TrEMBL record:
Entry coiled-coil feature ranges: none
Protein name: Acetamidase/Formamidase family protein
InterPro entries: FmdA_AmdA
Gene3D superfamilies in the record: Acetamidase/Formamidase-like domains
Biological source species: Zea mays (Maize)
UniProt-listed PANTHER family: FORMAMIDASE C869.04-RELATED
GO molecular function, one term: hydrolase activity, acting on carbon-nitrogen (but not peptide) bonds, in linear amides
Length: 217
């Protein structure tokens, strides 16, 4: 018997913006964002997704897109998905969820990726004092191998990064997060340092309402 074809629950059109997709995407963790589909416990299904920037990084030799990337627009996510058991009862906060990722790969017509260094004044990084300017390398896929015109002579087999996979917080847990982070931000922002090398940088940026994409909410 032929293997089952996974059911496509979140399709992506790589030529469209994240907010133009047929199935809405989101970029915040919140329990009020409604699920876009139900999947049954044990079901084999397929989820397509955009890259975390929503396609704002271009396949070219310039790092200007990295240099000027608006970091308030981050991590577009596919979903949420509601998990139900064989009787249609949905999972609840506190349930243990095991997810097996059976396959990963690029979408047709979008068989490339990139590595980059952020501009010191726009995001930076752990070694920003040593590498202060934006840089970008485009990687093309040949089966399991990747190569980059910007880094000649390098070709390697890689393990594809699955991106971000998680569960939506309950309202109770979200309130705990918000209270904890709000207290940290208000009481001692000058102590939230990454390391001495990044003496001028805070540990992290808190979520803001700016550039929210909230699915079907």
């Amino acid at each position: 018997m032929a293997p089952l074809t996974p059911r496509l629950v979140v399709p992506i059109d790589v030529k469209k913006q994240p907010w133009e997709q047929k199935v809405p995407l989101h970029n915040r963790w919140h329990p009020d964002i409604p699920p876009v589909a139900d999947v049954t416990e044990g079901e084999l299904f397929r989820v397509e997704m955009v890259d975390w920037t929503g396609g704002r990084v271009r396949d070219d030799n310039s790092a200007d897109d990295i240099k000027s990337l608006d970091l308030t627009i981050t991590h577009y996510l596919s979903g949420p998905l509601r998990i139900v058991d064989s009787e249609g009862v949905p999972a609840s906060p506190g349930d243990l969820l095991a997810v097996e990722i059976c396959n990963l790969g690029p979408l047709p017509g979008d068989e490339w990726g990139y590595t980059a260094i952020f501009e010191r004044d726009n995001g930076g990084g752990f070694l920003t004092d040593h590498f202060p300017t934006a840089r970008k390398a485009i990687w093309y896929f040949e089966g399991i191998y990747a190569y980059s015109p910007q880094i000649p002579g390098v070709r390697f087999p890689g393990l594809t990064h699955p991106g971000i996979v998680g569960t939506a917080p309950s309202a109770e847990l979200l309130n705990i997060w918000n209270e904890r982070e709000k207290r940290l931000a208000e009481t001692s922002p000058q102590t939230l340092k990454l390391c001495e090398v990044l003496h001028q940088r805070p540990l992290a940026n808190l979520p803001t309402p700016e550039n929210c994409l909230l699915g079907k909410a």
